[in-house]
Amino acid sequence: MDRSGSSDFGGAAATTGRSNPAPWSDDKESPNNEDDSNEDDGDHTTPAKVTDPLAPKLANNERILVVSVTERTRETWGQKAEFLLAVIGFAVDLGNVWRFPYICYQNGGGAFLVPYCLFLIFGGLPLFYMELALGQFHRCGCLSIWKRICPALKGVGYAICLIDIYMGMYYNTIIGWAVYYLFASFTSKLPWTSCDNPWNTENCMQVTSENFTELATSPAKEFFERKVLESYKGNGLDFMGPVKPTLALCVFGVFVLVYFSLWKGVRSAGKVVWVTALAPYVVLIILLVRGVSLPGADEGIKYYLTPEWHKLKNSKVWIDAASQIFFSLGPGFGTLLALSSYNKFNNNCYRDALITSSINCLTSFLAGFVIFSVLGYMAYVQKTSIDKVGLEGPGLVFIVYPEAIATMSGSVFWSIIFFLMLITLGLDSTFGGLEAMITALCDEYPRVIGRRRELFVLLLLAFIFLCALPTMTYGGVVLVNFLNVYGPGLAILFVVFVEAAGVFWFYGVDRFSSDVEQMLGSKPGLFWRICWTYISPVFLLTIFIFSIMGYKEMLGEEYYYPDWSYQVGWAVTCSSVLCIPMYIIYKFFFASKGGCRQRLQESFQPEDSCGSVVPGQQGTSV
């Protein structure tokens, strides 16, 4: 893929613009982002005078405006590989390491792969393909795209932006924990190896001790809870305490890395993903080789994969499989739209969807071997069963795995590369979530924000960091879990359902398939059209309903949340969800004209003033 913008498209658009005035020539805003590459207007030379006898006579100011719109080209990825790595990096996150292996063995081991693969084929993959195709065809973010699809649903874009802010508030804090561990690993002896540290209690005991009981706590557990988090100084959400300076410094370092990865758009992010997307695979393979060589590893892997077919009769297994594939692939966060919008128009997004989603699922499967080989080893060392060793979520990667590393020879080296892997896994995903919001706002407000991307990214990250400070307090770990459930956890399911309904039912599968045909040369097959029309929306609605019914289970049982916190949580969820109906009301009553039928048409039909996005046709902005 060429590193330059799509110059052939720009030339064709400019020629067309001279013979047909762009449909938005009287509008104050041009479609998509007007100047995504932050180039100054003075860099564009005035084109030669038009001498075509068939060209209509235009006023000078009209001609100048058309040239200024059509000559600007949208930035594209320097190489095709950069786009693929960015998508893979976003999809493959910490959940692939700490959630999938636990969900798999809890729900029948190898038998769980049956519903997992079914939901991948019929639910997750069609949505993944849809977002890549939408972003590539319309070449804009999650806000501007709706005037081309269903203007009344622009609230979906605002909801996504709000959800991305909530994610940034807690997800970067988790990466900050990994940074803390990384720096703590640069010693001759890992600090969670023994019980003779100032933060240890009388209950601390080595896991290899014969006297280790359920009342005892391991050095690794006390290091995480009493040294890294110092959660004993707070009282959950009732009293969170002050901000812990060392933890805040680690999280601040994460935000600095994120800024310098995003400030230049795909030009900077495209270079960073070569490290952040590939490094985890190198480390995973190294850890896998080390893990399978440990005593007891075979029992761990057997426990991981042994199918328990009777569990497939339980509906919870199927709901867990559907939720896992959805949150693993990550449609609906606006990231796939944003990343694919920087592709060239004729890029094969269908092949990209198959490649990246397959790699994501295979990575989850690989991570299961890495985790369970070590869990098998820990069960062997502790002379206990594997189900008493493992933990789900952060506890798995911040307590159990470091505990196992501490018993290995060369533990310092293994600790360093393990936490480097966690940091790179997390950074890729936070890049994607924030880029979705940045692209959307730069496209929607090209003059105010698009031309000042570096400053806007700086202010945005500073705002999110300030909002995230409560997660760095002594009670912050409870807030992290709280935001994970009520921030994106519930709201994103409803938002994506509305997005899918807007594309497949209002815009129409036939029209969407025609768009894909213009890019790839052929329409999607019958399978995809059936999935888009019926299966995928039902898939999303089912997950949403069951998640609402079991939201307390999503919070976990380690901490008892006060009654008032549930009301606050639902307020957080509604803050993003309500963007959708509020914008529909605004569009119908205040932003549309005429009678009821005309207002409905203006609200739910694509705007004619958007023009074409097909290269070479009038109105193209690629």
From TrEMBL:
Start-end of Acidic residues biased regions: 32-42
Molecular function GO labels: metal ion binding; serotonin binding; serotonin:sodium:chloride symporter activity
Query: Which PROSITE patterns does the protein's record reference?
Result: NA_NEUROTRAN_SYMP_1, NA_NEUROTRAN_SYMP_2, NA_NEUROTRAN_SYMP_3
Q: Give the residue ranges for region: Disordered.
A: 1-53
Q: List positions binding Na(+).
A: G89, A91, V92, N96, S328, N360, L425, D428, S429
Bridged cysteine pairs (disulfide): C195-C204
Q: Specify the protein's topology with respect to the membrane.
A: Multi-pass membrane protein
Q: What GO CC annotations are associated with the protein? A: neuron projection; plasma membrane; presynapse
Annotated membrane-spanning segments are: 83-101, 113-134, 155-183, 239-260, 272-297, 317-339, 359-380, 412-434, 455-479, 485-506, 526-548, 568-589
Keyword list (alphabetical) reads: Disulfide bond, Membrane, Metal-binding, Sodium, Symport, Transmembrane, Transmembrane helix, Transport
Cellular location(s): Membrane
Q: Which GO terms describe its biological process?
A: amino acid transport
- From the record, what ranges are coiled-coil? none
Q: PANTHER family from the entry? A: SODIUM-DEPENDENT SEROTONIN TRANSPORTER (PTHR11616:SF279), SODIUM/CHLORIDE DEPENDENT TRANSPORTER (PTHR11616)
Concerning NCBIfam families, the annotation shows:
Na_transp
For this chain, the family text in UniProt reads: Belongs to the sodium:neurotransmitter symporter (SNF) (TC 2.A.22) family.
**Annotated protein name in UniProt:** Transporter
Q: Which organism is it from?
A: Drosophila mauritiana
